[in-house]
Each structure stands twice: as structure tokens, then as C-alpha cells.
Batch of 2 targets.
Target 1
Amino acid sequence: MRTLREYEAVARERLDPVHYDYFAGGAGDEVTLRANEASLARLALLPRILRGGARRELGVTLLGTGASMPVLVAPTAFHRLAAPDGERATVRAVAAADTIMIVSMAATVAVEDIAAEAPDAKLWFQLYVQPDLAFTEAIVRRAEAAGCRALVVTVDSPALGRRERDGRNGFHDLPDGLYCENLRIGDSPGHVRQIAMSPEISWEHIAWLRDVTELPIVLKGVLRAEDARLAAGAGVAGLIVSNHGGRQLDTVPATIDVLPEVVDAAGGLPVLMDGGIRRGTDVLKALALGASAVAIGRPVVWGLAAEGEQGVKGVLERIRDEVDDALVQCGCASVRDLDRTYVRC
Ligand SMILES: Cc1cc2nc3c(=O)[nH]c(=O)nc-3n(C[C@H](O)[C@H](O)[C@H](O)COP(=O)(O)O)c2cc1C
Ligand SMILES: O=C(O)C(=O)c1ccccc1
């Protein structure tokens, strides 16, 4: 496999079609799902010439966590549907690549076991705030104790998106033997709670979380400038411009199209972006428009389904290589050299 898209083709052959649809699908007519990739493709890069420089620096530091490249692993649920050891395979590959894994609250391996599998892995933990605050706090304590360095609070899911592929396929639950291990209460597998995606979650919960934990809080799922301003005022440490890979509200804009206005409103907070990143050139476009880094969701799942740990490694090394190539072709010695003049809209 030479490209991230080739991993998808192999993953599709290997996966149960119902599970493929769960991973690949979006909400509604999948307008936003398609728009994420299409809007990135429509933007043109404008390289500089005759800039000298023999080597590139791809590394970034995000909220004090170093990463060897500006590409993180977005939180995605249910990795054991893609490969038997699931998130354990993913974290080994992420540690080898020296980037950051945002562990999904809906992981099928417990955050403690993910951390133990690769002790030098850099982990952030993704949280859906649960209306039961004592239960939410218990999950935060587990993430802290496992060594997670930031809390990524997903704020684009007041309800689960309308995933019509899942409805047609009757996919509503994990198969027997697989559980959301971060929601386990006690030892009995029967005691795994469902994740609540609640419309009652508000800015007050963010204030509450800031009191509960010292971890930096990142809001994932910001699409509007005024919400970026509110976030900066609420003391959060960073933002992720995300439409959940087109899986929540269909027909919201492509993330690359709203990134500049969110960056301008964020008051200097680091802004990450995800959605449709499939090429090194996509990464450069997002960085040029103000992102501090990007995250990839489905490509990691495709690597995992195609070849397990090796597949995730392959995906991460291919995109790293493409970022390096795109930088050299743009005449840049560092990801920090990029600015809006490199993109023509
Ligand atoms: C199969 C799947 C599961 C996901 N699970 C979660 C999740 O548990 N928590 C979350 O915040 N986002 C979740 N997301 C959204 C991703 O974090 C990310 O925003 C999105 O996948 C980025 O788009 P991309 O897949 O085009 O790279 C999921 C996405 C997919 C495709
Ligand atoms: O599938 C998703 O996008 C997602 O975020 C999720 C997480 C937990 C349970 C169900 C869906």
C-alpha cells in the first residue's frame, strides 16, 4: 500500500461490510463527509522557489506534548472491530511513530491497558461529558492515572448523528465479547454502560471540568468563531475544528473552510483540525491556514484493519513522508514556515 487511500481499499476487503459501513459512513446524505475531502482538494498550494535548506523540521509541541510530526491520531471508537488487539496495536504504532494518540472514551481496550502496552506513548483522552458527573469524574481520574496529558472534550454530539448506513445494517451495538472498557464499572462485563450523548451539556460543565482536573482541556468540534471566543474565555487550552468526520450534523461546512475564521477568533489558543486529511498536501493546507496540527481518523482504522500494528505504522509513515515531500516542494524548511500565502482559495 502506497497511499492512505490504498489502505482503505484493502481494509474494505477485510472488514465485515457492516463494520466497514460503521467506520466509513457519515450522517444523513453524507454531504459533509464528502465535502471535507473535496474542499481540501479544491485549495491550491503556492510554493516558494530558490529558498535553500537541506533538511526539514516536522516536529511540533502541543500543550507541552512533543510530536515528531503535525499529524495526530484522532479518537475513533471500537478498534477491536478492525483488528483483534484493537487499540493495543494502534498505540504500539503511534508510540513508534512518536506522535500523539487521542484515546477514544469508546475504546474497546481500557485506557490503563493502552498506556501499559506502550509506556512511552503520548496519550490524550477524549471525553463525552456524561450527565452523571460522579461517573464522569471517575473516568477523568482513570485517564489521569493512566498518564493521559490532556482531556479532549467532544462538544459536537448533543445526540448521536443519524448514521443511516448503521440503521439499514441494524448495527447498534458491539458484538458479544467487545465492550467500551472505559465505561466499565467494577469487574463484571455486564456492567458496561452506554455512552450518553446528552443535549444538556453546557459551558457550565466545562467550568466544572476545569475545577475537577488540572489537565489541559481541548474542545473538539468547534465550527464557529463565536464559540471559539467563548472557549478562549472559558479557560480551555486548545480547540479542534472538527465536524466529527461528517458523522454528526450533515451539511455543516468542510472543516478546512471554517478553519481560518476559528483561528482568528481563538485569541492565540492552539487550533487543531480534522476531517478529510488523506495527503501530505492536505496537512500543509491546514497548517498554512493556521492549524497547529491535524488529526486523522479513518485512515488509522484502515491501516489497523488492513495490517494491524504494521498497517497503522504504514499509514503514519506514509503521511509523514508526504508532509516532508510537500514541505520541500513548497520551499519550506519547517512546518512553522507555512502561512496563508501558501494557499490560494
Ligand atoms: C469510526 C469512527 C469513530 C469515531 N469515534 C469517535 C469518538 O469516539 N469520539 C470522538 O470524539 N470522535 C470520534 N470520531 C470522529 C474522529 O475523532 C474525527 O473527528 C474524524 O474521524 C476525522 O475525520 P476523518 O475520519 O476524515 O479523518 C470517530 C470517527 C470515526 C470515523
Ligand atoms: O462513531 C462515532 O463517531 C462516535 O463518536 C461514537 C462513539 C461512541 C459510541 C458510538 C459512536
Target 2
Amino acid sequence: MNLRKVWGSMWSRSNSCKDSTKAIQVPRSSSSSSLGAFDQLPMDILVQILMLMEPRDAVKLSLACKALKSLAGSNRLWIFYLQCLQESWDSIFFAETSLRYGYPLRMVSSESEELSFMRVYGQRAQVPDSIIIDGGSGYCKFGRSKNASPSGRSATFLEFGNIESPIYARLQQFFVTIFNRMQVKPSMQPIVVSLPLCHHDDTESAKASRRQLKTAILNVLFDMNVPAVCAVNQAVLALYAARQTSGIVVNIGFQVITIVPILNGKVMRQVGVEVIGFGALKLTGFLKEKMQENNITFHSLYTVRTLKENLCYVALDYEAELSRDTQASMEILGEGWFTLSKERFQTGEILFQPRLAGMRAMSLHQAVALCMDHCDEAGLTGDGSWFKTVVLAGGSACLPGLAERLEKELQNYLPSSICNGVKVIPPSCGVDTAWHGGKLISNLSTFPGPWCITRKQFRRKSRLMW
Ligand SMILES: Nc1ncnc2c1ncn2[C@@H]1O[C@H](COP(=O)(O)OP(=O)(O)OP(=O)(O)O)[C@@H](O)[C@H]1O
């Protein structure tokens, strides 16, 4: 009731503002910078009052006169409205200040351009819903950009085979299946698609393979009449989801672990991408072996995977953990109760001691340290700290304790000149991290403009190349 009075009073004040400027030629500044009786109220209180209104009412108010325009259009008010949205404010702020101009990335600089969050709010409301598809080699995640999380997941390899090999028919079957499952027409909205982590080298043949894969994906999608496509590397999407534009992404993938240095949104292949030849599949396999050794019977690999996802963790100090009581149980529907003890942390330990699983691979911290060393040697920036932020991605990176352990191992392993300031960030959105990176882009106030290639642009480009 009180609010209605406040609103009514402000509204009549704003109307009288308009009338007065029409009727009598009052000097503009004196009439339009005043809120009449409300001038007595501190600015803070006025903004608090507006916060109780709906955004559309604040817009109406801002059209009334200059004083109300500056009050109702203030960034403070619209930041509040943006904070009320489903997406976190930190993510919105990161995206709107770091990603809004597309690639190459350009930060919004506070000196040269002030971002109007009122405009950002309005533009974000107009952005079309798009489909985000993160086609992982093991599991594909797909869903709408306006939804909080992916609506579906498929076992990519089991259903479609290797989608990293650019065979038209296979890619087509993959996308057709996803569109059917989502019950959407491909021609109705832009698509954000992750480019798989493969062909990492900086050689001409690797470049050609990457180009070939991207072109095949775009060809398939545009042949299905998709209006616009945004195709971004999976590791880069994971980095954006962690609200970073530079750093090292450690993706614990389905079959391999990939360590990707990224500077300002660009994969630094010339510095070197490290690959460790095992991944999530090996972790599940190792737990299965341990359970069999300890006479724990199960009927399916699904059970082992579920136990891994729910009971396993990474110990901060492996030796100390061996002497602790670490028993824990869980029930799996249709299979009964399972109790694990040492297997709970031995499984993740193979990331740091691959020899426990009989493998002669590099350990996770050695590979990340090697990557950091290469970044340091390359001397790409003045301050040399861009590679000290390590972002974990991939389902297995959700193992509790992994980030802390990796950070500890890196501190011990790296030379003192590099280890200062190293921080490891756990996957911000669990197994769906890369999908959420796509969501950040697809909800930008400037989307699809700077991030997408349209069907027309792609066809024209293809014609010019031949
Ligand atoms: N909370 C969890 N703890 C441990 N492992 C998990 C957890 N959640 C998912 N996983 C594991 O992550 C694996 C799938 O990871 P992910 O979906 O990242 O693969 P992907 O995207 O297909 O891999 P790639 O990066 O190779 O394309 C599965 O083996 C799953 O068991």
C-alpha cells in the first residue's frame, strides 16, 4: 500500500515534470534534476524504494524525466535486478565485461566506456533461446540456454561412435538424435557447440584436422538449416565457466587427461598441450579391479561407476590416509548395500601415482608442472602469472579433495620462482562445466552477433575457399 503511494506520488511528480517543461520554459537543469519532495530522501533510500518495483515499472519511470531517468537507470538498481535472475551475478558480470565483443576477447574498460546495466538487462531479455551441445567423447550434454542445466545426457561413444572423426553421416546422426530428443526444430534457434579436445599439436597436419572437424560440424548443422552456430573449444568453455579468460585447464576426460594452456581465450598450442593417456574409464576400471580383489561382488559396471561418483575422493596425504578408518557404505537400488574403505581414495590416487594401476604414464602434477614450465619459458606476457590459475574440468575432476591435493603437489614440485600464486579451481558446475561455459556465451546481451557464424556467412566463406 505504502509502495503504491510512493509510486503514485513519484509518477505524478514525473508527469508534472513533463508538463512543467512543456507549459513553462523552466531552465532544463533545475526542473529535470529535481524529484520534488523526494529530494529530501537520501539517494540510497530512493534506490531501495525502486528495488521494490518490477524492472518494467522502473523502465517506465525512467522515461518520465531526466531526474528519474538517472535514478531509475542507475547501474546500482539494474545490478540488483540482474542479481535476482537465475544466473549468478558473478557469471553475468564476467560474461558482460569479458566476453561481450566475441573473439578475440576485449575487456570492457571502465575509462573508455561505461556499461549500462539497464541496457544489458533489456538486451539479455531479448536474446533468443539457443541449444547448447557439449559433445564429450564419453558423455554428451545438451539443453536450452535459458534453462539452469542440461536437459539430457547421452553416452556419446556407445551411441554414436567416435564423433571426433569428421564423418558426415555420423555427425548428422548425432545432431539429429539430439534435436529429436529435445523435440526442437534445428532451424528455430542458434546452436552453441563445443569443439572436442583433439589434434592438439601445433603442426600443419593437426591444424588441418581441426579445421576439417570444425568444417564438418558446421556443414552438418547448416545443412539442417540451423540459422547460426557458435563453435568453441571445450577447454575454453570450461575456463569461461570458471570466470577466467586465461589459465591452464586440466580436463579429466573419458579416455585421456588433457592439460590445455589458454591465454585470453586462445589455446596456446605453440606452448604445448600435455596429454596423459588415461581418464575416467581407467578410474572406473581400477575401482572395479580393487572391488574384485576385495571380494566385493557386483552385477554391472554401472554399480562401480555409481560407487566411484558417490564414495570416492582424493586424499590430501595418501600415506596418512592408509592408516585411517575410511569405511563408508551406500545402497544401490536393485543391488543392495556396498561398503568401501581404502578403495575410496586409492582410485583417485592413480592420478598422482599411475604406477599403482600398473601404468607408466606421467602423474597429474608432473604434467601440469611441465605445462607451467613451458608457459613460463615462452614468456608470452609481462607479468608471467596467467598460467598460475589451474581450472579443473570433466566429470572425474569432481572427486572431492582433488583440487587441494593437486595444489599441494604443485607447491612441492614446482620451483619457487613459479609456485608462488598457483591456485587450483575445482569444476564450477561439476560434470556440466563446459556446457555452462556455453550458457554464459549464449545468454550474453550481445548474443548471437559476435559469437556466431550464420549460414549465409559460412556458405560465402566456403565458396571463396574453393
Ligand atoms: N562426482 C563424480 N566423481 C567422480 N567421477 C565422476 C563424478 N561425476 C561424473 N564422474 C565421471 O566422469 C566421467 C564422465 O566425464 P565427462 O562427462 O566429463 O566425460 P566426457 O565429457 O565425455 O569426456 P571428454 O572430455 O573426454 O570428452 C564418468 O566416468 C563419470 O563416472
